[in-house]
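Aim 2 progress update. The chain analyzed this quarter is reproduced below.
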Amino acid sequence: MSSKKAKKKNEASSSDEGIGGDSIVADCGRNRSNCGYCKSPTRSSITHGLWTESLTVNDYQALLDRGWRRSGCFLYKPKMHKTCCPSYTIRLKASDFVPSKEQQRVRRRLERFLDGELDVTPKERTESPDVSFSGEVSESVRKPLGSAKRGQDYEVEPVVKDFSEQIDNAAQRCVQSEEFPSNIQIPKASVKKVPSAKRKKLAEGSEEILYTSNIAFQIVAAIKHAQTSEKSEQNNNAEENRLSPETVSEKLLSSMNKLGVFTGFSVKVCKGHINFLSATRGVTSSDREGNSIFATATKSSSNNLHARKRKLEMHLKRSSFDPEEYELYRRYQLRVHNDKPESISEASYKRFLVDTPLIEVPPSGYDGEKKVPPCGFGSFHQQYRVDDRLIAVGVIDILPKCLSSKYLFWDPDFASLSLGNYSALQEIDWVKQNQAHCSSLEYYYLGYYIHSCNKMRYKAAYRPSELLCPLRYQWVPFEVAKPLLDKKPYSILSDLTEVSPSSSSLQASETLVDSTSEVEDMEQKDTDDDDEEMYSSDEDSDSSRNRSDITNILISLNGRRFRYKDIRQIKNPAVRKQLESMLVTYRKVVGVELSEKMVYELR
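Predicted structure tokens:
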């Protein structure tokens, strides 16, 4: 065998084990916290945690299939029979997915938007947001004060939205060219329609001011705020060079002049305001030399803007910090989830959505074997862009068996497009398409399903879905599991695997009673520190080893690795007892195979 072929074979072998690396975990034990779902005043959410900075994709796939999830480098698993809101891992086989009528409408709505047949109505603030794996929210929105009479829909003219986007783009170019400071957050431009009663007062010759924006004043305020936050010496220098609204508006207009033409309007600045005027006369030399953008008026100018086709692009990139993504995340958290500004920082964002313990597996082909998709395995950010504007980011993990959806944040201005639902449909399609490159890639994992939380039940609309039994780790069709969950939040779902959805209600009822009694008996036996796995597990029952056997657990101690059986001669009985108790719990929560495969780090 040639050295080149030998190298390729070794790479293929490494990829099967997660590509040259080990999973190293530290057990954080049980944790109690406030619940974000039921909003209980007590610390009623109970999980078990592991910390890891190194995790193979195969090991994380196995952990997912035992009910674990990750947040950054922290892995957590609900203690199902104790926590207030039991969370079941939910997945669907992509090739079996059948979109509902509502999901088909989501696709058509976005296609109409891209074709220019539909305009997006910017949303000021959502009411009762539906928190989910993809950040989806309901489409009911709070209307801006004074924007419309009660009971009427608040609509924004397409031309107004187009003007606002042009100003925003001009402001960004001014930052890039250092005409505006780079350490400020540029506010979004707001263009308002001038009431007809005021137009005559503002009329200039044969032109009328139809729309106006005071964005220059907001930018000046943002610059002032940033400068006053700096040291006093810097403030003194900044005071001399502080931009005025008049200067800012002129810089914005100059930047827009470089873009092209506003059909049917001329644009001028006056006392810091950017005004959009009706154009009813020909172009003059003064217009070309002065601060205005002008074109001959046409009756269809507004329609042309409205019918403008848009281009949607999706870019899949490895998980990394991106300032543009962070700014979108910040806007999303502030406007959709009503987070406080001081609670959002680059550090917390990185910990939550950028940091990952997953060891990357690069894309490669192995002698025709279909093992790795073109992008490879690991953690990714899927960017959604419309005409190069970032409107959504999906945070996902691509693993040997699945695409696992972690989070999605989107531009609140595009709330009416249901981007959470649309991104889920795109991710399901991605799995279907890439199964041709990776035969094991079959499933789409939607995160946790919480039957006791109405806002999380929408995940069951992606059919046909399966829920993971929290005791035996078998996958159970949702339609089969639902009768149990309707009765009790925590249930041993695999007890109903023999009952089909078409079974008689009497049979299902009898099985439900038996299962409920079994759970109650188990909970009576339970202790504070033991997990539900202590009672039974198909995986463990198939093993010839005793459940208390921890001798083969792989441990890292002082930089060296041992099996516990090689270091268990610990002289201090108290230390030995404490360590063995920790290892027994660890083995129960991760399972026999992973406890002997991953490295248990003693700190």
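Residues 506 and 512 are 10 Å apart (CA to CA). DSSP finds 18 helices and 21 strands in the chain. These observations will guide the mutagenesis experiments scheduled for the next reporting period.
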